[in-house]
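# step 3/5: fold
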Amino acid sequence: MSVSERWYRNLETGLHAPLSGEILERLSRALLLGPDERMALYGHALGGAGGQPAENAGTAGNDAPDDVTDALAELTSAQTGFPTYLTDQAWNLLDHNAAMARWFPWVLEPGANLMRWALTTTAAREQIVDWSRHAAQYLALLRFALVTRPDDAGLGALRDAVLDDRVCRDLWDQSPKVLAYRHGHRYELRLPHVCPQTFTVTSQVLLPAYRQELRYVLLLPVNR
């Protein structure tokens, strides 16, 4: 790392130890971190996902839309062919289209939360084929969000609710993996009210440039 003994002692004891970009790069190389782990490290050290503090995410640049959430809600409703939905940084459902509600009626419930549904409900474990593997990825996404937004009360409450489930707790304890995005992820669904056979979809995730805590997701069926 090429740092002083004093710097290292301060880091271990919780005192101030400057984390410049150069030091973070050395640390990333020393620990053989992958791309998502590097993003988590930089986000945690610099005060927000990707190094951009959450409170400034909507003010970067002079051409930022006044209300990105409303614009994305309109985009969500305009999509009629495939399920689409919009979530905040804690995976609370902000909007969805009719196709999403037809595939997944739980989105109509008050306080609907994608992560809580996917990880803790019996319906999700029946409808998502190979649920355990995908649950581990959801948990890695949650861990990344918690590292880059450690003071977010909504994320903390979501973590507590998810880890109260024994199966999720066991999966959480098995791996420290972090995952920044799930864009292009392919998975199989078992939805007899939509299709008599299991079918495959990919999730296409769009992040607004100035509001990266929002996620606009489109589910696209895959022809096999």
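# step 4/5: annotate
The chain has two domains: 5-56, 68-221.
# step 5/5: archive (pending)
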